[in-house]
């Protein structure tokens, strides 16, 4: 018969196994390598399910959305060296543009206050000059007063022209910031924010929507063997292939080596056939290193594609497509699964 000590040890071992299993599932779910940095982050989440970190992770991943490297770093974790870096949604560039825009706003406001004050002064001076001209019998005085008023008018026109120029610069800066906030800087594709906004718009309009989630197969091997610059070229090539093969549909870089395609106004069968053509094009191409002409070999992607139900939320739809993508990966890669 087991002693009380042996029973306690067995209980501890059982709980430890549970923790290990849950950490393993967490790493697999978010496609994190079993690196000590990733393990430590996962342990903090799993070991304190009611803690602030676990709640933050739950909020970010609701509906099956995976954590990005940027999410992990924002939550205080660290990303292992060699992991595919997530490209932020032009955050740094946008923050810089916001700062510039703020400066333009402040300068424009100051200028408008100055023009308003000058206009008020000019109005008073104009009334005084009109009274002086009525009271004066001298043509010279009238000419002099008229010249003063003309100078003031020209000065006001110059200031107003400068203010108009400032306003146009401000408009252009705001348009640039708005565009950059929705564009992936590496591939020039729409980013995750732009994709989510487009999805919401089409769902609200009641459009027929299919979602494909695509992931480059064994992309980490490319980065580890050839470096991130070559990996970047591969991502650009796949972005171009998807865009060319899916005309009229939104191809976006969702993060890392993951892309999404938002098919609107088409059936699941047609969307699947279109994506299959893109997969064939990518799989048939043989890449070479630009510097040495060394063959890089075949690069493929796997995907999951599914049709949105009326009124379905993105988290639910994305989670379903993502599970299909996992199935494609588990069954040999370089294939598309649909539902």
Number of DSSP strands? 7
Total of DSSP H or I helical runs spanning 4+ residues: 11
The end-to-end span amounts to 53 Å
In terms of per-residue confidence, which ranges show pLDDT below 50 for 5 or more consecutive residues?
84-90
Structure classification: alpha+beta
Order of strands in the sheet with most strands: 2-3-1-6-7
Strand-residue proportion: 5-15%
**What would you report as the Rg, rounded to the nearest angstrom?**
31 Å
How would you describe the shape? Answer: elongated
**Helix share bin:** 55-70%
Characterize the main sheet: 5 strands, mixed
- Compressed to H and E, one letter per element, the order equals HHHHHHHEHHEEHEEEHE
Average pLDDT confidence is 79
Descriptors:
two-stranded antiparallel ribbon, 7 strands, five-stranded mixed sheet, alpha+beta, 63% helix
